[in-house]
Amino acid sequence: MNRLVAFRTSIVAAAALVLSACGINSVPAAEETAKAKWADVEAAFQERANLVPNLEQIVMSSAEQERETLESVIQARASATRPEIQLDGDDLGDADKMAQYQEAQNTFGGALSRLMANVEAYPELRSQENFGRFMTQIEGQENRIRVAIRDYNEAVRQYNTTIRTFPDTIGANIIHGAEPMVPYAAVTEGAEVAPTLNMRGDDDAAN
Asked: What broad class describes the main subcellular location of this protein (predicted)?
């Protein structure tokens, strides 16, 4: 009887090991990691969008010439944050939805960069305390966006490798029906990298 119990225990343990090796646990774990990293990407972009009202107050109060450029930023922000282009975890395998989201974010980032480049021409703006504070915030946020995208792409790479590699691919295809996820790649060359904003002026940059 003891031998039978021991035999059955060993069979159960072996079966559990085989199932584990076939992606039963590793595939969903890798998937959840990638989804969590995507949430970080969306949060980073949203935090950048949340800074625009601060910039709006600065420009409207001191640089009437740039209000048209500011309007393009506001419009691009509205487009980049509209609910219908946001991606949840189940959309990460849809290349078209990812491209749409990326394009909106790139358009917003480009408009923001152009406005900041124009605003640099106004010494009275650059000397304002609130402008300096905004400059620090936006530069920090652009860096957080870059880090979040990098971490998401690495999580996607690991997930896509897991579902395609034996023996995890057995569980991925037969049990989970897993599909590859789409990395945050550029719509145009270099667009996957958040723009670097030079808001300190040429003299400060040289120092």
From this structure: membrane
Show contacts of 25-29: CB within 8 Å, 24+ apart: 26/162, 26/168, 26/171, 27/159, 27/162, 27/163, 27/168, 27/171, 27/172, 27/176, 27/178, 28/176
Please name the residue that has the structure tokens 């890798």.
30
- Residue 112 to residue 78: CA distance in whole angstroms: 13
**What is the total residue count of the chain?**
207
Instruction: Evaluate if pTM is beyond 0.70.
Output: yes
- Range with the poorest average pLDDT among 61-70, 152-161, 163-172: 163-172
- Mind spelling out the 3-state secondary structure of 39-83? HHHHHHHHHHHHCHHHHHHHHHHHCHHHHHHHHHHHHHHHHHCCH
3-state helix vs strand vs coil in the chain, percent to 5: 75, 0, 25
Give CA 30 to chain center in angstroms.
17
Distance of CA 177 to the CA centre of its chain: 25
C-alpha span between 17 and 22 (Å, rounded):
9
Alpha carbons 89 and 6: distance in angstroms, whole number: 43
Q: Write down all domains in the chain, each with its CATH number in brackets.
A: 25-172 (1.20.1440.20)
Cα 185 → chain centroid = 10
Distance CA 193, CA 143 (A): 10
- Min mean pLDDT across 11-15, 61-65, 113-117 is at 11-15
Tokens representing 58? 């600065």
